[in-house]
Amino acid sequence: MLDFIVKRLLQVIIVVFLALTVVFFLIRLSGDPTTLFLPPDAPREQIEEYREQLGFNRPLYVQYGEFMINAVQGDFGQSLRSGEDALGLVMQRMPATFQLAFAALIVSMLIAIPLGVLSAYKRNTLFDRVGVGLSVVGQAIPNFWFGLILIFIFAAQLQILPSSGGGSISHMILPVITLALYSISRFVRFTRSAMLDVLNQDYIRTSKAAGATTSSLIMKYALKNSLIPIITLVALDLGVLLGGAVVTEVVFSWPGVGRLLHQSLLNRDFPIVLAGVFIIAIIYAVINFIADVLYAYVNPQIRVK
Amino acid sequence: MTDVLLEIKNLGIEFKTGEGTVQPIRGVDFFLKKGETLGVVGESGSGKSVTSLTVLGLLPEKTSKIVSGSIHFEDEEITHYSDRQYRKLRGNDISMIFQEPMTSLNPVFTIGEQLSEPLKRHKKMSKKQREKAIVDVLKQVGIPRAEQIIDEYPHQLSGGMRQRVMISLALLCEPKLLICDEPTTALDVTIQAQILKLMKQVKQDKDMSMLFITHDLGVVAEMCDRVVVMYAGEIVEVAEINELFDNPLHPYTKGLLASLPTNNDRKSKLYSIKGQVPRPNEIGEGCAFANRCPFAFDKCYAKTPPAFSEGDHLSKCWLQQPEGR
User: Fold this and answer.
1) What's the domain count of chain B?
2) Interface test with B, best of A198, A208, A215, A218 (most B CBs within 10 A)
3) Across residues A68-82, what is the average pLDDT?
4) A222 touching B, CB under 8 A?
5) pLDDT digit string (tens) for A263-276?
6) B114 and B88 co-located in one domain
7) Which of A66, A120, A166, B104 is the one with CA 20 to 30 A from B113?
């Protein structure tokens, strides 16, 4: 077990390092931030001076090396715009993002797993066909569009929910629905196919021949087997929800990391972007690590190895 | 009637498939006496397993249907039992052992958890009593360290051990009828012999009846009192065990017996029945075996033979017609 944990932690480090490297170079392709901070007609000397002050005039590899050395010590520099500590700014926004992501994930699982199980049990009935059809539609709808439609209906027309901002439960409802739609659709289809697969296994027939009721067959003997692949999917989706809620956070002006990253990218505020990527990469890798541990918990065949 | 435990009359089953309906079982008739072991023999696709699954109501509900005939268990007609009614029988009065010990146990539950199921359903026992009952049965079927094994998972056991666990699952509620669907086919020969010996002994101890499905005539000779030979969804011959081996009447049975390898002649060519069992949708008029039968004549292709009987020995072949051809 210790061996396994050490190996996975090494992987986490590699993932985070690679993510930072890729983003470090990609972001510099977007252009020089100094042009955004100075007026367009600023004299050449002033631009050069500013570049030198921020260190952008040095060769790229020097900048990269310095960045990595500082990053290892947890120092991502200061925001180019406000001068505040970049990592601190990102951390401030984390709770709001966590709130949204976990709410969306819990809502998705509570709705999708029972629906998927029911769909598998009633396979090829009208219920199943409608369910699968809707989940394809749900996966196909882009969430910026869905978010805007929700705002239009519930905030603009009915005026029963706020369209933007954070702070209360009512603020969360629309963004959570928007985020959950995609996950629900994925989970329903995945749960359904995992269940169908398990329900055809010999051991289900064995339990049936031993006198198990339909409900214990499904809720006990089949569901635990189907949970093995579902856990992986849920973990992947939590990573997506935490890191990729950017669009939803922007649409609903949710004060989370996604929106901060979006703004910082537009401002070419490199330190904040890199600090954000650092945090998201760590979260993503850690969640996958947790998923592996959980996976071992429900799957005894892995546990022993 | 009292000494008959299971009686199947004129059973016909229909499957819905993508290309319409087929009848994998047609007019199957047999009975099983109390305390008897009845072998059901035939090649793959002859309908042995479908017949046995029907007895326990385990055929898929949506795609299969009993279209004719009846099944009686202990003088009770169970042909059209609901799932709820069947549940009282399953694992209680009738148990089943399946072919594949490697996949027939649930990989994410311990042996103990899986073995508690029939006890929970059918017996009112406390958790402690259940555990004791399970350990007892595991010991009966020759599993060492039974107390530890109940907390282990199926993948930690070998194939032979798993089949022993399957047998103990079937025995827990001391069923009146034990259906064994090729219980030793997936095991290697030495284990196979152990398991057969065990089953024979268990049957004697518990005074059960057994329906033993296999394609292996060697196993039949070892285990059974009487034999039903099935071919393409029909019964072609029924006989007492010695009678069947000494005096097989149906050409299919003769072919099966001739296909048995013997220890005596080394490296001689193995006999095999040419061709394959027809698929259910390929069966038309006449005897289903006619196209593979070395003795077939015109009548065989034209008309399905009825069952001719000679005492308890029954066979469905025109060659047995008393007035000849």
Assistant:
1) 2
2) A208
3) 84
4) no
5) 888 888 888 888 98
6) no
7) A120
* Average pLDDT of span B100-107: 88
CB B293 within 8 A of CB B310: no
Choose from A104-113, B17-26, B83-92 the range with maximum mean pLDDT.
Answer: A104-113
Phi-psi region of B231 (alpha: psi -120 to 50; beta: other; left: phi over 0): beta
Structure ipTM: 0.84
Q: Which residues of B touch A224 (CB under 8 A)?
A: 108-109
Which CATH number characterizes residue B278's domain?
A: 3.40.50.300
- Using DSSP's 3-state secondary structure scheme, residue A142 falls into coil
Alpha carbon distance A123, A132 (integer Å):
10
The predicted-structure confidence for B144-156, as pLDDT tens digits, reads as follows 888 999 999 998 9
3-class DSSP state of B43: coil
CA–CA dist B209, B273 (Å, integer):
32
- List pLDDT tens digits, range B221-264: 989 999 999 998 899 999 999 999 999 999 999 988 888 877 66
Q: Which two tokens stand for residue A193?
A: 């196919």
Contact B121 A213 (CB under 8 A): yes
Q: How many CB pairs under 8 A join A and B?
A: 78
How many degrees, rounded to 5, is the angle at CA B100 between CA B99 and CA B105? 120
Sorted by where each begins, the domain ranges of chain A are: 1-79+269-305, 94-226
A305 and chain B in contact, CB less than 8 A = no
pLDDT reported for residue B300 = 87
Q: What is the pLDDT of residue B41?
A: 92
With an 8 Å Cβ cutoff, is A226 touching chain B? no
Largest separation between any pair of C-alpha atoms in chain A = 86
Mean pLDDT over A47-62 rounds to 81
- Indicate if B10 and B46 belong to the same structural domain: yes
Measure the CA–CA gap between B102 and A298, rounded to whole angstroms.
19
Boundary of a domain, candidates B148, B173, B198: B173
Closest partner residue to B90 (CB to CB) among A211, A228, A301 is A211
Same domain, yes or no: B214 and B279: yes
Distance CA B13, CA A32 (A): 77
Closest listed residue to residue A270, CA positions, set A44, A46, A56: A56
Residue-averaged pLDDT of chain B? 87
Q: Does domain A94-226 have CATH number 1.10.3720.10?
A: yes
Beta-carbon separation of B153 and A202 below 8 A = no
Residue whose entry in the numeric block shows the structure tokens 């928007």: A178
| A213 near B CB under 8 A | yes
DSSP SS3 for A172 = helix
Q: Is residue B98 a contact partner of residue B35, using CB atoms and an 8 Å limit?
A: no
For chain B, the helix, strand and coil percentages under 3-state DSSP, each to the nearest 5: 35, 25, 40
The pLDDT of residue A210 is: 87
